[in-house]
Amino acid sequence: MIYAANFKTNHTRKSTQLYVEEMQEKLRAKNSEDSVYIFPPSTALDSYEGNFTLGTQNAYPAQNGAYTGEIGLEQLDEFGIKTILIGHSERREILKETQEMVAQKFAFFKEQDFEIIYCIGEPLNIREKGLESVMQYLLAQFDGIDIEYENLIIAYEPIWAIGTGRSATVEEISTTHRALKKALHDKPLLYGGSVKPANI
Description:
The chain has helices at residues 13-30, 73-78, 89-93, 99-111, 124-127, 131-140, 170-183; strands at residues 2-6, 35-39, 53-54, 83-86, 115-120, 152-156, 189-191. It is α/β, with parallel strands linked by helices.
């Protein structure tokens, strides 16, 4: 199984270190072969050691340059980071990242052999129209994306269930995942959005 934690704009360098230490204790005690990823804010990136993968929530598709407020490949290389989130709905909705920009990032980091967790999701008004509308909306988010890329993991995160406290049911998740698996040639799939024991 794959587990991923996106810290968003939460945690400091100190609290991230404490999180990593506690997580490591739990992973050692569990002694499982699950894949675990954490995505702290860029100010908390470091060369952590453990049985997990450290990734970046975002990066600009360039080695370096005049991109105020961004981090590039050069900064990620310093920490040995080779995993990135791309396409998260908060970047699409709040920061107005277009599909063109998302695809540009994907192409750049694919070229760098990054492991990419690619995020897709639908708003509530689309969900209420039924599965066919949901799938049309989700698949449109693969415009310019190479779904055959071998280091690709898909994260399905319904927008209406992210940070709202309203969770998708197991049936809703399972039905959408089955349709996505069929359309995307059995790529690894994650679910995110108000995750709790009842919908794992």
